[in-house]
Write a sequence for this structure.
């Protein structure tokens, strides 16, 4: 192994993992929702933010849709 390398001749290239990077977002979640995921995360031994991300990713993969139509009361 050399003690010194000449990096001036190296060609730059795009980061192949750039599309897989996570983007920070701010969300307002109910305390009970956060508590639910924190408890599950403690049991699984993972950070709760990672668990929420895994759950949302599963929704994306399975193309889950939520029914948010409001029912009228007679």
């Amino acid at each position: 192994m050399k003690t010194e390398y000449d990096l001036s001749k190296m060609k730059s290239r795009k980061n192949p993992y750039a599309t897989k990077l996570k983007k920070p977002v701010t969300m307002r979640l109910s305390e009970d929702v956060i508590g639910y995921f924190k408890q599950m995360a403690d049991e699984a031994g993972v950070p709760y933010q990672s668990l929420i991300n895994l759950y949302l990713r599963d929704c994306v993969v399975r193309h889950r849709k939520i029914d948010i139509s409001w029912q009228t009361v007679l």
